């Protein structure tokens, strides 16, 4: 069976992506299968630049078609921050708890109606021959006052989906995948992966 590499070491993300790719006749590998793969600095100004950088480097390293994502939270009142800096919002090696605490602090005095935000995800697909595609998914929501729920990762406990009245951390992984920025981007990339399979690019 042909293989596709997910250029991530984040097990939460890899698992989310595996579930969404499960319908394709393709072997899904991750960086866990390539312990010597280079560490990549995510120093781009945009999610797209970072996703393409990761996919290009890992595709070259593995000689396999590679899917890479870059994602983060954009809070309107903070001018789109933390954005591409989501993972290191509270400092270079900040934990999810530290990043969430910083966000709560910054939002303390903001009225509820101004707490609009969205998660954004760009997924890049790069073949070893140098063919490239990228797609984007977003999910709108509101930042709440205190963490709710134990699922997911990152900012999930502070991100409320208004139509559901629940945070991402209160949803099952299937429910989250159905509406999340990453789920939406993956739904867009799936037909492209299928097309590449059909055309023999993978
Ligand atoms: P990256 O795409 O691995 O660079 O992720 C950037 C950061 O964005 C993560 O470390 C999280 O803080 C945040 N993030 C991205 N996607 C999600 C999500 O689905 N839930 C919560 N936080 C997320």
How would you characterize this protein structure?
- By secondary structure, this protein is α/β, with parallel strands linked by helices.
- The protein has a single domain, classed as Maf protein, CATH 3.90.950.
- 32% of the residues lie in helices and 23% in strands.
- It contains 5 helices and 7 strands.
- The protein has helices spanning 11-21, 47-62, 96-107, 173-179, 181-199, and strands spanning 3-6, 27-30, 65-75, 116-126, 132-143, 159-161, 166-167.
- It has a 7-stranded mixed β-sheet with strand order 2-1-3-4-5-6-7.
- Helix 1 packs across helix 5 (181-199) and helix 4 (173-179) packs across helix 5.
- The protein is globular.
- It starts with a strand and ends with a helix.
- The model has no long low-confidence stretch (mean pLDDT 95).
- The structure holds inosinic acid.
- Inosinic acid binds at residues 10, 42, 69-73, 86-87, 99, 119, 152-156, 168, 180, 182.
Give a summary of the structure in a few sentences.
The protein is of the alpha/beta class. It has five helices and seven strands, in the order E-H-E-H-E-H-E-E-E-E-H-H. It has a seven-stranded mixed sheet.
Detail the poorly predicted runs: none
Question: Ions, cofactors, ligands: which are bound?
Answer: inosinic acid
Structural class assignment: alpha/beta
Q: CATH class, please?
A: Alpha Beta
Return the CATH topology.
Answer: Maf protein
Count of discrete domains: 1
């Amino acid at each position: 069976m042909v293989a596709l590499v997910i250029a991530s070491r984040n097990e939460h993300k890899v698992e989310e992506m595996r579930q969404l790719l499960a319908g394709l006749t393709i072997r899904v590998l991750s960086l866990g299968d390539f312990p010597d793969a280079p560490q990549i600095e995510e120093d781009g100004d945009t999610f797209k630049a970072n996703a393409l950088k990761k996919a290009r480097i890992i595709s070259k390293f593995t000689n396999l078609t590679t899917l890479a994502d870059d994602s983060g939270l954009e809070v309107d009142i903070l001018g789109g921050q933390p954005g591409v800096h989501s993972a290191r919002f509270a400092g270079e090696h900040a934990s999810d708890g530290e990043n969430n605490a910083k966000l709560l602090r910054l939002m303390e005095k903001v009225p509820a109606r101004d707490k609009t935000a969205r998660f954004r995800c760009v997924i890049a697909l790069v073949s070893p021959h140098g063919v490239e595609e990228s797609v984007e998914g977003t999910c709108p929501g509101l930042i709440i006052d205190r963490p709710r729920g134990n699922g997911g990762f990152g900012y999930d406990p502070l991100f409320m989906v208004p139509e559901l009245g629940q945070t991402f951390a209160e949803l099952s992984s299937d429910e989250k995948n159905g509406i999340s920025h990453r789920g939406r981007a993956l739904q867009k990339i799936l037909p492209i992966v299928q097309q590449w399979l059909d055309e023999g690019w993978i």
